[in-house]
Specification:
It is built from 14 helices and 14 strands. It is an alpha/beta fold. A seven-stranded mixed beta sheet has the order 4-10-9-8-7-5-6, sandwiched between helices. The chain is 42% helix and 17% strand. Helix 6 packs parallel to helix 7. Strand 1 and strand 2 form a beta hairpin. It is globular, with a radius of gyration of 21 Å. The termini are far apart.
């Protein structure tokens, strides 16, 4: 089979499965709104949980940073790109979350890949939740360590794996809030099991940071768990982009020697760090926004229950509506778009086969009237 035949066959298979991914140009049209093909729609697909992606304070900080420091870092942080702004922001993050050190990465995907690649060696084992993010599972498959996956959010399943002998070290990986199901990991239970076996724990809290826990400190803070490796990202509640690893002094120094994604990537632009610093200040004071988001979640779930809509069990801003069939999920998303709501259909391989869904995400930027509009559109469009 030639390259072209292989590519063509793979695309044809995705097309037949109604699983072919396509991109569509969109622009933000105010908090909670999006514009596509000249149509303004209520946006229920963004991870902008606190509405900071459109916040003028962040935009002004980025603008001022670009004027003062330029457009890019100009090099790796190991060469010339480690700016005093980065040093101060990393220290501020570490103090906020109660860790000795923080290291900035250009994306959450890069952070997860770098950590797994640097930490795991032959003879080690990596125990990951079955629904862990693709960045984690891909890195685990590529590492020389043994990968085993425990049943989603089941500490008893993890216990069974931990009970088996391992010649090397054990790293247990989970998420704070899962990106496709919207449910929360039982971090306290998992931490007890992990540490009783002598293992370390890594938590990706991309969807919890800024949203839950005292002052928005995230899922681990909320459950009073302190994993050895905590990854937070800035593309959701922070309204920007990038990620950070929170860890000990020794782990941070180790990563600076062996985390290739960190060593060989151009550093984050100083202007972006200015925006992130403004976002952190906003998040610390965003109790009213977090309460509004909580109220929106409760309002939506209550309305969905009244209409008999089959939501997965989630108390987070991620509210998946299970459809099952790929074509049906796509058709429902299209009907909602025609009704003025942007909701994304998520299909395999992102989610397990037979679990295609609409991934509805709520924000503090949504008004109760927006939630009601979505519920009415779902009621009119959804075949139960």
């Amino acid at each position: 089979m030639s390259w072209q035949q292989r590519i063509g066959a793979a695309l044809e298979q995705r097309q037949q499965q109604q699983a072919l991914r396509r991109r569509q140009p969109t622009t933000a049209s105010g908090p909670g709104w999006i514009e596509a093909d000249g149509q303004r729609l209520r946006n229920f697909s963004a991870n902008d949980y606190l509405g900071l992606a459109q916040d003028t304070r962040l935009a002004a900080a980025w603008h001022d940073g670009a004027l003062r420091y330029g457009n890019g870092a100009g090099g790796s942080a190991h060469v010339t790109g480690y700016h005093p702004l980065q040093q101060r922001f990393e220290a501020r993050l570490a103090e906020w979350l109660g860790y000795p050190r923080a290291l900035l990465f250009i994306s959450g995907f890069a952070a997860n890949q770098a950590i797994v690649a640097a930490m795991m060696a032959k003879g080690d084992r990596l125990l990951a939740d079955k629904l862990a993010h693709a960045s984690i599972l891909e890195a685990a498959h590529l590492s020389p360590a043994e990968l085993r996956r425990f049943s989603h959010n089941q500490s008893t399943s993890l216990d069974r794996l931990l009970a088996k002998p391992c010649a090397g070290e054990t790293l247990v990986i989970t998420e704070g809030i899962f990106s496709m199901d919207g449910d929360s990991a039982p971090l306290a239970e998992l931490a007890v099991s992990t540490h009783a076996s002598g293992g370390w724990m890594m938590v990706d809290d991309a969807h919890g940071i800024g949203v839950v826990g005292e002052g928005g400190r995230g899922s681990c803070w909320q459950q009073q768990v302190k994993p050895e490796l905590l990854v937070i990202t800035f593309g959701k509640a922070f309204g920007c982009g990038g990620a950070a690893l929170l860890c000990s002094e020794d782990v941070a120094d180790y990563m600076l020697q062996f985390a290739r994604h960190l060593i060989y990537s151009t550093a984050m632009p100083p202007a972006q760090i200015c925006a992130l610093d403004a976002a952190l200040s906003a998040i610390k004071l965003a109790d009213s926004e977090r309460q509004r988001l909580h109220d929106n979640i409760q309002h939506f779930r209550s309305g969905a229950a009244e209409r008999g809509l089959s939501l997965l069990d989630s108390s987070s801003a991620i509210q998946p509506l299970l459809v099952g069939d790929n074509a049906a999920a796509l058709a429902l998303a299209q009907r909602l778009r025609q009704a003025g709501c942007w909701v994304s259909a998520i299909r395999p391989p992102t989610v397990p086969p037979g679990s295609a869904r609409l991934r509805i995400t709520l924000s503090a930027a949504h008004q109760p009237a927006d939630i009601d509009y979505l519920l009415e559109a779902l009621d009119a469009s959804h075949d139960r």
